[in-house]
Amino acid sequence: MRNASPRATHESQSPYHPQERRARPAGKAIGHALGSLGFDGVNDVRQGKFIELDLAEIDEKAALAAADDMCRKLLANTVIEDYRIDLAEC
Questions:
Q1: What sign does the CA torsion over 86, 71, 49, 23 have?
Q2: Taking the alpha carbons of 38, 43, 44, 45 in that order, is the dihedral positive or negative?
Q3: Which residues make beta-bridge pairs with 50?
Q4: Under 8 Å CB-to-CB from 88, ≥6 apart: which residues?
Q5: What is the chain's pLDDT, residue by residue, as a tens digit (90 residues)?
């Protein structure tokens, strides 16, 4: 069910990042640079991407399902990336 009212929409935030078992050269470079700048105590860095969607879906479960489907089919490369979906009513 779709609703045209912008007050009844859900916002989906889908950060995604390399899977734990994959090499993370960008994260390692960032971690090294942080150490060079004197930031001690950084054990690991994982760099990822963040996608924000404004969905017209009013039902929270349907919005979550739609966002998950979008991630699996296009937004995340699920072979090498994990993703998480956070919904917020807007």
A1: positive
A2: negative
A3: 15
A4: 10, 11, 13
A5: 333 333 334 555 556 666 666 656 888 899 899 999 999 888 888 777 788 888 898 899 999 999 999 989 998 888 888 888 988 877
